[in-house]
Amino acid sequence: EVQLVESGGGLVQAGGSLRLSCVASGFSFDDYAIGWFRQAPGKARTGISCIRPTDSSAYYADLVKGRFTISSDNAKKTVYLQVNNLKPEDSGVYYCNHLMYWGQGTQVTVSS
After folding, report:
1. What gap in Å lies between CA 5 and CA 104, rounded to an integer?
2. For residue 62, pLDDT beyond 90
3. DSSP the chain
4. How far apart are CA 97 and CA 88, in angstroms?
5. What is the pLDDT of residues 29-41, one digit of tens each?
6. Mean pLDDT across the stretch 63-88?
7. Rounded average pLDDT over 62-88
8. Are the beta carbons of 86 and 94 closer than 8 angstroms?
9. Do the beta carbons of residue 24 and residue 77 sit within 8 Å?
10. At a CB cut-off of 8 Å and minimum separation 6, what does 36 contact?
11. Smallest Cα–Cα separation from 22: which of 65, 60, 77?
């Protein structure tokens, strides 16, 4: 059974940082990419970053370039998203994704 479990969200002030984690199980970690999506209240879920664990090649949406860093620990089957210089508009539920599978999400709230 494929599982993605996110953690690391919380309430931070603008300019603060968090490290989000996504622990994967039930599939070969080397297959395809693993991504992070964000969904703000009343808005569509949007892709913000993804990584291919085999070679650590990464993609970032323009909104987060220079502030967010994605990485993976293949031995732990975990993908991290370091989020720095957070802005109120970064608030939302952050989801981990692999193919058609989604985690339950972790809430990030940034206060101004």
Report:
1. 7
2. yes
3. --EEEEE--EEEETT--EEEEEEEESS-TTSS-EEEEEE-TTS--EEEEEEETTTTEEEE-TTTTTTEEEEEETTTTEEEEEE-S--GGG-EEEEEEETTEE---EEEEEE-
4. 23
5. 777 899 999 999 9
6. 96
7. 96
8. no
9. yes
10. 20, 22, 47, 48, 49, 50, 70, 79, 81, 94, 95, 96, 97
11. 77
* Spatial distance between the Cα atoms of 35 and 99, rounded to a whole number of angstroms: 9
Give the pair of three-digit tokens for residue 95.
């989801």
pLDDT of 3 > 80? The answer is yes
Provide the token pair at 75. 């031995």
Spatial separation of the C-alpha atoms in residues 55 and 17, rounded to whole Å: 26
Q: Which two tokens stand for residue 51?
A: 């990584």
